[in-house]
Amino acid sequence: MRAMILTEIDHVAIAVKDLDAAIDYYRRAFGAEVDHREVVESDGVEEALLKVAESYVQLLTPTRDDSPVAKAIEKRGEGLHHIGYRVKDCAAALASMIAAGATPIDKAPRPGSRGTTVAFIHPKGSYGTLIELVQE
């Protein structure tokens, strides 16, 4: 049997139109506070990370109309965008997923927010779920 390559859930990403309104809602509803906020120019998004135990709720809003998050909101509306799985070795996890039949969006790991290394896997071949592999 193979060794487990996922170490924990890194984040659940939720696409929103108005980041400040979403942050305010999570603050009022759950008492959640922003642990980290960053614009990721390469992905055309601004994120706010709300810490929940050792994981995050990641609120994402597009910073440009051609970003994948803008397209997702236009197509499906606001809501669940992807799941981020924490891994020890992003390149090894990506290779393992490809070997299992996954369709990579990123052909190789790349820089992510908070100084992480990430790779995205297309929902096709992953049971309809956009997956982000996250190495801290």
Describe the protein:
This protein has 136 residues and is of the alpha+beta class. The protein has a single domain, classed as 2,3-Dihydroxybiphenyl 1,2-Dioxygenase, domain 1, CATH 3.10.180.10. It has three helices and eight strands. An eight-stranded mixed sheet has the order 2-3-4-1-5-8-7-6. A hairpin with a 2-residue loop joins strand 3 and strand 4 (55-62). The chain starts with 5 loop residues before the first strand and ends with a strand. Belongs to the methylmalonyl-CoA epimerase family. InterPro entries: Glyas_Bleomycin-R_OHBP_Dase (IPR029068), MeMalonyl-CoA_epimerase (IPR017515), MMCE/EMCE_epimerase (IPR051785), VOC_core (IPR037523). Pfam families: Glyoxalase_4.
Rough shape? globular
State the low-pLDDT regions, or none. none
Average residue pLDDT: 96
User: In order across it, which strands form the biggest sheet?
Assistant: 2-3-4-1-5-8-7-6
Strand content: 35-45%
Question: What level of helicity do the residues show?
Answer: 10-25%
Q: Under the CATH scheme, which architecture would be assigned? A: Roll
CATH topology: 2,3-Dihydroxybiphenyl 1,2-Dioxygenase, domain 1
DSSP summary: helix tally:
3
Q: Mind describing the biggest β-sheet?
A: 8 strands, mixed
The CATH class designation is Alpha Beta
Spatial gap, N to C terminus: 26 Å
| The CATH homologous superfamily | 2,3-Dihydroxybiphenyl 1,2-Dioxygenase, domain 1
Order of helices and strands: EHEEEHEHEEE
What's the number of domains?
1
How many β-strand runs? 8
